[in-house]
Design brief:
- Chain B: This is Polyamine ABC transporter ATP-binding protein.
- Chain B: InterPro entries: AAA+_ATPase, ABC_SmlMolc_Importer, ABC_transporter-like_ATP-bd, ABC_transporter-like_CS, Mo/tungstate-bd_C_term_dom, NA-bd_OB-fold, P-loop_NTPase, Transp-assoc_OB_typ2.
- Chain B: It comes from Zavarzinia aquatilis.
- The complex is a heterodimer of chains A (283) and B (346).
- Chain A has a domain of 161 residues: MetI-like fold, CATH 1.10.3720.10.
- Chain A contains 13 helices and two strands, in the order αββαααααααααααα.
- By secondary structure, chain A is mainly alpha-helical.
- Chain B folds into two domains: 225 residues, Rossmann fold; 104 residues, Nucleic acid-binding proteins (OB fold (Dihydrolipoamide Acetyltransferase, E2P), Beta Barrel).
- Chain B contains eight helices and 20 strands.
- The longest helix of chain B has 18 residues.
- Classes of the chains: A mainly alpha (283), B alpha+beta (346).
- The interface between A and B is medium-sized, with 20 and 30 residues.
Chain lengths: 283, 346
């Protein structure tokens, strides 16, 4: 039995509160940000109402283009690596006993509760020369002397994947635990080894889930601005870092807003494109 | 011996034993039904044969080769699952040709095999459709076609028809039996429906609480049940507790009856099918006990008379033309023909 669609204004009452919250704390601030992105910057740290494209023109340069490209590339890489690691992990997890699953999920949730700052400093310690994991490798005889592994691109990637991993597992978990286990058994009776059954049956039948997860982790990674600063060189700073820099240290709100709006538009465009791609593939 | 041999198979889950010491010999070409109420271990037994569950003890042999340790994907058995387990991301044709794809057969071979199997299950021309666009009965046929794609040594089906409605199920039972006869493939079906087992099986294996109670052709299971559980589970029966009363005689329901069974245990249960029981006017008929008619049900094709004999209800079924001239409440003679009486140990 389907519910009747709302007709009178009063029928919308149940969503009034969430709609109000969304309006007050998302739509309005985003609108202000869009407006400020067209404002004129006054030297000395403030801005006045205007309608000019100067802020947008400013980052249509090779430098900002490069930073934008790097940000999108890094976030995509983080999303792909996180899903590559989390998918087999979650597949093994859903086949464990209930208690084992609960322990792992609690552990992942506690990792998720760590702030970006703590994750950043923890990894910078682990990657350091004095107290880092390379000392362990030296002790094991794998390396001659301890080295510092950061700042580097690898350190940024490792930190961001670590941050995204529990999130990825939690997004994949419901779909994988609902998957009919007899699909794999059927593939096995038809002659597929467990390894082939995983790639022939599990992965393709969850194609849309995987795509959706990659997009979610991509958007999640795009907002990360502390880890690239803590673990990377200036070349590895993302657009989010530059936005923070402009907004807080340079007090250039109009330019920061313009970059933020542009980042949102580009990522929305990419998400839309991949959804369109996914739809076509499904048809 | 050639064929499938289950050599004292055991399956334990912790303290719970799902299958006790199952021993069975199935010659090639037989249609076998594992029959029993839910939770009797029949699906576990099938899964062990398929290689999906490892036995806790015992061996599985096919043509004298021990396959107990052979992984499922190297056994070359076709299996149809209760959920059918059709791959949602593949078309009908790709589903059927999946085992050929695994073995690196060419696209043309896969296509030809899919078409051949689809016509075998009488569903030609749907190879390019997505699985989700088919009805329940059609999916059933696709799952059967996929399991048969490689001409497996053994064809296993786990409650394959349970999702279909009654009418379609009856039709599919006959079709499945015909398909098996046409291909001559050794087939094992798990079912809880005794009618389904009687329709299809050459060999019915009745199971209860993890044990095989009887393995025999359907008519024998029906006519000579091994114990009271089998007698009660297969079709309708009247069960009367009693004791031995000398050679060829038993004491039941306050009287004595002649039976043709030679082996009579001291404590026994008499089993007699409703169609073998005869109701007569009081004082008539041989080998009888007195009773009172409690209810008469005219079902058109048959007449069912219920009578109380020494505090127990006995059901008799006759054809309408042999309807006894009795009414509810009448005192009657209930005849138990000696050759139809099956004496079972208690």
């Amino acid at each position: 039995m389907s519910k009747p669609s709302p007709r009178r204004l009063a029928d919308y009452a149940p969503i009034a509160f969430p709609a109000g919250m969304l309006l007050a704390f998302f739509v309005v601030p985003f609108g202000i940000m869009i407006a400020i992105s067209f404002y004129h910057r006054v030297q000395g740290g403030f801005y006045e109402p205007a309608f000019e494209f100067a802020n947008y023109e400013r980052f249509l340069t090779a430098f900002f283009g490069g930073v934008l490209g790097f940000s999108l590339g890094l976030s995509s890489l983080v999303a792909v690596v996180a899903v590559l690691l989390a998918f087999p992990f979650t597949w093994l997890l859903v086949r464990q006993r209930r208690q084992v699953q609960v322990i792992w999920l609690v552990f992942l949730l506690s990792v998720l509760s760590l702030s970006e700052v703590i994750i950043g400093f923890a990894w910078s310690t682990l990657f350091s020369k004095t107290a880092g994991i390379t000392n362990l490798f030296v002790a094991l005889g794998l390396m001659d002397q301890a080295v510092s592994l950061y700042p580097s691109f690898g350190a940024v990637l490792a930190g961001m994947v670590y941050q995204a991993f529990p999130y990825t597992v939690l997004v994949l978990y419901p779909a994988l635990s609902r998957l009919d286990p007899t699909l794999v058994e059927a593939a096995r009776t038809l002659g597929a080894s467990p390894f082939r059954a995983f790639f022939n049956v599990i992965v393709p039948s969850l194609r849309n889930t995987i795509l959706a997860t990659i997009i979610m982790v991509f958007v999640f990674a795009l907002g990360s601005y502390l880890l690239p600063q803590l673990l990377g060189r200036p070349q590895q700073w993302t657009l989010s870092v530059l936005i923070t820099d402009q907004a807080i240290y340079q007090s250039n709100m109009p330019f920061a807003s313009a970059m933020a709006v542009f980042l949102v538009l580009v990522s929305l465009g990419l998400v839309g494109l991949s959804l369109l791609f996914g739809q076509r593939e499904k048809a | 011996m050639s064929g499938l041999v289950l050599d004292h198979l055991v399956k334990r889950y912790g303290a719970f034993t799902a299958v006790h010491d199952a021993a069975l010999r199935i010659p090639h070409g037989q249609f076998v039904c594992l029959l029993g109420p839910s939770g009797c271990g029949k699906t576990t037994l099938l899964r062990m044969i398929a290689g999906l569950d490892a036995p806790s003890g015992g061996r599985i042999l096919i043509d004298d080769a021990d396959i107990t340790e052979t992984p499922a994907h190297q056994r070359d058995f076709g299996m149809v699952f209760q959920s059918l387990a059709l791959f949602p991301h593949l078309t009908v044709g790709e589903n059927i040709a999946y085992p050929l794809r695994i073995r690196g057969k060419s696209k043309e071979d896969q296509r030809a095999a899919a078409e051949r199997l689809l016509s075998l299950v009488r569903l030609p021309g749907v190879a390019d459709r997505p699985v989700s666009k088919l009805s329940g009965g059609q999916r059933q046929r696709i799952a059967i076609a996929r399991a048969l794609a490689l001409s497996p040594r053994l064809f296993l089906l786990d409650e394959p028809l349970s999702a279909l409605d009654a009418k379609l199920r009856e039709a599919m039972q006959i079709e499945l039996k015909q398909l098996q006869q046409q291909l001559g493939i050794t087939t094992i079906v798990v079912t809880h429906d005794q009618r389904e087992a009687m329709t299809m099986a050459d060999l019915v294996v009745v199971m209860s609480e993890g044990r095989i109670l009887q393995a025999a052709p359907p008519v024998e299971v029906y006519r000579r049940p091994a114990n009271a559980f089998v007698a009660d589970f297969i079709g309708m029966t009247n069960l009367l507790p009693g004791t031995a009363a000398g050679a060829g005689r038993i004491a039941v329901g306050g009287g004595t009856l002649d039976v043709s069974d030679a082996n009579i245990p001291a404590d026994l249960v008499l089993s007699i099918r409703p169609e073998d029981v005869k109701i007569h006017e009081s004082g008539e008929g041989a080998n009888r006990l007195p009773g009172t008619v409690t209810f008469i049900r005219d079902l058109g094709a048959s007449v069912e008379v219920r009578a109380e004999v020494a505090g127990q209800e006995i059901v008799a079924v006759t054809a309408p033309k042999h309807r006894p001239a009795v009414a509810a409440g009448a005192t009657v003679s209930v005849e138990f023909p000696a050759e139809a009486c099956v004496v079972l140990a208690k």
